[in-house]
Amino acid sequence: MDLLTQVEWSYLKDFFIKIEPWSKKLKINERVALIEVSGVPLHCWNYETFKRVARLWGNLVSLGENLTKVHNFEKIELLISITQSKMVNELVSMEVGDEHFPIRVKEQGWRR
């Protein structure tokens, strides 16, 4: 694409895997959502747990800083790619052994 050879647009190649001209047939079914996860028990606070939580709706793209630079264990933000259009706002049950823990998952950035 000629546009991407122009200096002011060339940076787009750093952010996108594929760039193509718009057409009426182009349909994107996926979006990214920033979700906040709270209520995860301390002994389950790890990458695999949050990856599994993300898989309930889609795929984990990135984790918030609170996994490695822990300020508290109250909540963490996850960036996920999802195909559903409705807002994520659910209470799910996390089963650990014989125990169940309520986990709140809420999408950020939506106004009601």
Compile the SSE list and pairings.
Blueprint: E1 31-38, H1 47-55, E2 58-63, E3 75-82, E4 89-96, E5 99-107
Antiparallel strand pairs: 1-3, 1-5, 2-3, 4-5
Protein name: DUF4283 domain-containing protein
Organism: Gossypium stocksii
Report on the architecture of this protein.
- It comes from Gossypium stocksii.
- This is DUF4283 domain-containing protein.
- It is built from 1 helix and 5 strands.
- It is mainly β.
- It has one domain.
- Strands 2-3-1-5-4 form a 5-stranded antiparallel sheet, with helices on one face.
- The longest helix is centred in the middle third of the chain and has 9 residues.
- It starts with 30 loop residues before the first strand and ends in a 5-residue tail after the last strand.
- The mean pLDDT is 86.
Provide tags for this entry.
five-stranded antiparallel sheet; 112 residues; mainly beta; single chain
In short:
With 112 residues, the chain is mainly β.
Residue share in helix: under 10%
Report the strand count.
Answer: 5
- How confident overall, as mean pLDDT? 86
What structural class should be given to the helix and strand makeup?
Answer: mainly beta
Largest sheet: 5 strands, antiparallel
> What's the multimeric state?
single chain
Q: Which blocks of ≥5 consecutive residues have pLDDT under 50?
A: none
Number of H/I helices: 1
| Strand content range | 25-35%
What is the total domain count?
Answer: 1
Order of helices and strands: EHEEEE
Q: What is the molecular shape? A: elongated
Distance between the termini: 40 Å
Report the radius of gyration as a whole number of Å.
18 Å
Widest β-sheet, arrangement of strands:
2-3-1-5-4
Protein name: DUF4283 domain-containing protein
Organism: Gossypium stocksii
